[in-house]
Amino acid sequence: MIIINDFLLNRISEKASQSERLRKNYNFHHYDADPMQRMLNAMEPGTYIRPHKHEKPDKREIFIILKGSVAFVIFNNTGDVTDIVILDSTKGVFGIEIPPATWHTLVALKKKSVLYEIKDGPYDAAHDKMFADWAPPENATDAEAYLFQLKRTISNYP
After folding, report:
1. Torsion-angle region of residue 82: left (phi > 0), alpha (psi -120 to 50) or beta?
2. pLDDT tens digits, one per residue of 26-64
3. CA 131 to each of CA 5, 105, 115: distance values in angstroms, whole numbers, following the listed order
């Protein structure tokens, strides 16, 4: 049995805030070959998740907000934003399912944001994600500027 409570959310959020990447996963699945990957994703504002998609093999991702607020930005194949969905339980938007082969990223909007994620398995780091070549890699010098522009786009989105 797995219990998700304030203690667990606060513990994983604390680890995320202390992480260089400003995010931390807490896995509920016990092995990478599990056909259903389940985890908590704790993230802080300022973390940069490079836009990516899951295809070959195709994988769905389902996210449910437990705490905080996180924007999901959806892109077309050339990197234009096609949709933005903000998960925020205080505003009545609780979850999103990202179809396979959909370019997307996540942007933490509030401190101590935590998502419950379910993703098709198995997990294979070499083939899990296809990163967008139109977005900078995570540690690139222009990643911070790209994240700033994404936040600006989110704040101006209808």
Report:
1. alpha
2. 999 999 999 999 999 999 999 999 999 999 889 999 999
3. 33, 10, 21
- The pLDDT assigned to 125 comes to 87
Please tell me whether the overall predicted TM-score, pTM, comes out greater than 0.90 for this model. yes
What is the set of domains in the chain, with CATH numbers?
A: 6-156 (2.60.120.10)
